[in-house]
Amino acid sequence: MNKVTRADVLVVGGGPAGIGAAIAAARTGADTLLLERYGFFGGVGAYGCGMPINQMRPAGIPRGAVHELLIDRLLAYGEEAVRISDHALVCNVEYLKVAVMDALDQVECRYWLHSRVVDARVTQECISGVVLATKTGFVEIAAGIVIDATGDADIAAYAGAETMKGREPDGFLSPTTLNMIITNIDVPAAREFQRHGGLKRLLDEARERYPLLPESMGLERAPFPIQNALVLNHSGTKLRGVLDGTRVEDLTEAERYSRHQAIQIVQALREFGGQAFAKVQLAATGPQVGVRETRRVKGLYTLTEDDALSGRRFGDTIAWRSGMLDIGFTRYEPMKVHDVPYGALIPEKMDGLLTAGRCISATHVAASAGKSMGNCVATGHAAGLAAALAVAQGCMPRDLDVRTLQARLRADNVDLTWSPPPTYNAR
Q1: What is the mean pLDDT of residues 150-171?
Q2: pLDDT at position 235, please?
Q3: Long-range pairs for 265-269 at CB < 8 Å and ≥24 separation?
Q4: What is the rounded distance in angstroms from the CA atom of residue 365 to the CA atom of residue 308?
Q5: Does a cis peptide bond (omega within 30 degrees of 0) precede residue 225?
Q6: What pLDDT digit, counting tens, does each position of 331-378 carry?
Q7: What single DSSP character describes residue 152?
């Protein structure tokens, strides 16, 4: 096994949380390496076929230096790359993939694509690095601090940290979804069709002929400059039953089911959708199903449903979460802006490891309350700074003085006491 030069901060997972962590750590001058298993960064923001990147600028107000660096790199490519709609970025994902690399290059962050982590190195309950499977074989990377931004708490699980999964007591997991772009449609007519309940009627009328149709679906603006097209977001595998995104068998079934489902959706739209969809075509699907929920780390503090609904504030806050409580086409309702305490990023019993994004310590409901991508960037920002500070001070993340971390976040223009103005629209 080849051994790679040690990184101060090693971030695993190049979605919104990992991007936020890597940029934040590298901006401090820490030697930072970001690993991503695909050939591009962005996570579901990139493979969701242009779905909005929510909560990046709630009420149009910047969240901090890391969010703004990414937005600036997108804006540099003009209106064909991104438009900002209240809190959300609506991106052409091909520009997004490049803009992320531009942001990483700007802060001199090292990164490797096509790098799948398959194991962790642990000594006396302290993680010291990871093992990659590459085209040239297994590669070991040593690190001062590791940040798990995999979404599925893969690194924590490999290291033996305690994790949680699904809803207690029945193990329910939010459904997976394969987003898709449909084209060659009359967009204004399709919008009217949706506004007047046409999609629901279509699903009821066409289900006997097309049994894989989802329980519900909605149409969103397609990535511009694509014309006469829309993104279709839907309840995916909900009617198929619970599928676990950490099991290869279940992921295979999710892909098999969803890709057949995509064909049936287009056929149903063409036959039952009227003039708006008479010539509809399937233009693209994501490279994999979107997984909303799997493992979460059991941390020093576990965020709860009550925290989200009551808008709880914490003395050790390092981020806040805005948006909707959204359990994947199962439950969708308003929540209050609420804090993320530092303890939710720190595994209860594993040193040398921080978490960011949707695998931080939270209950089933609380995890669904915070998974908007802008919130994941925020927890990544905090984790990246914490990792860099811990390396510089020669301590474990759990021993870091949170007041120091909070001061560095404020220096990065993060308002840790932010409350939404009356004009704020969370949807």
Answers
A1: 96
A2: 95
A3: 265/180, 265/210, 265/213, 265/214, 265/217, 265/232, 265/234, 266/182, 267/210, 268/202, 268/203, 268/206, 268/209, 268/210, 268/213, 269/182, 269/202
A4: 9
A5: yes
A6: 999 999 999 999 999 999 999 999 999 999 999 999 999 899 999 999
A7: S
CA distance 405 to 125: 24
Distance (Å, rounded) from C-alpha 267 to C-alpha 285?
Answer: 15
Domains of the chain: 2-167+294-411 (3.50.50.60), 180-285 (no CATH)
Altogether, the residues listed in the chain come to a count of: 427
- CA–CA gap between residue 91 and residue 49 (Å, rounded): 9
Closest CA to 382 of 145, 111, 66: 66
Does the structure show a pLDDT above 70 at 192? yes
For residue 94, count CB atoms less than 10 angstroms from its CB and return exposed for 0-12, middle for 13-18, buried for 19 or more: middle
| Burial 372-384, CB ≥16 within 10 A → b, else e | bbbbbbbbbbbbb
Task: Write the Ramachandran bin of 43: left for phi over 0, alpha for psi from -120 to 50, otherwise beta.
Answer: left
Q: What is d(CA 427, CA 424) in angstroms, rounded to the nearest whole number?
A: 9
Please give the mean pLDDT across all residues of the chain. Answer: 95
